[in-house]
Write a structure and sequence with these properties.
The chain is α+β, with helices and mostly antiparallel strands. It is 28% helix and 35% strand. Strand 2 and strand 3 (46-51) form a beta hairpin.
């Protein structure tokens, strides 16, 4: 379930202050949204995301970052896959967001 996976990412962000995850992007959608979760046996889960932007001049990447900025606090970056449909993302929590143990 994508919602359970997102919840686990939020928990990890609150605990560690930084998370990494993979997405598979489908550009050109009517609305940007999470479309599912791929769970390959040999790697971590991959979020499937439909993006309401064309894959030209970085528009789809900008829309992807805007979308995840609504879901997670902090700085969001594309680490790998700038010109690919498969991307690695990083979220760094803002100061004061991380729970102390």
């Amino acid at each position: 379930m994508p919602s359970a996976f997102l919840s686990s990412l939020r928990e990890e962000l609150a605990a560690r202050g930084r998370i990494f995850f993979a997405v598979r992007v489908s550009p050109g959608a009517k609305k940007t949204k999470i479309a599912g979760l791929l769970e390959p046996s040999d790697s971590a889960p991959i979020l499937k995301v439909r993006v309401a932007a064309a894959p030209e001049k970085g528009r789809a990447n900008k829309e992807l970052l805007r979308f995840f900025a609504e879901l997670f606090p902090g700085e969001i970056r594309i680490l790998a896959g700038h010109a690919s449909t498969e991307k690695a993302l990083e979220v760094r929590a803002p100061l004061g967001f991380v729970r102390s143990s």
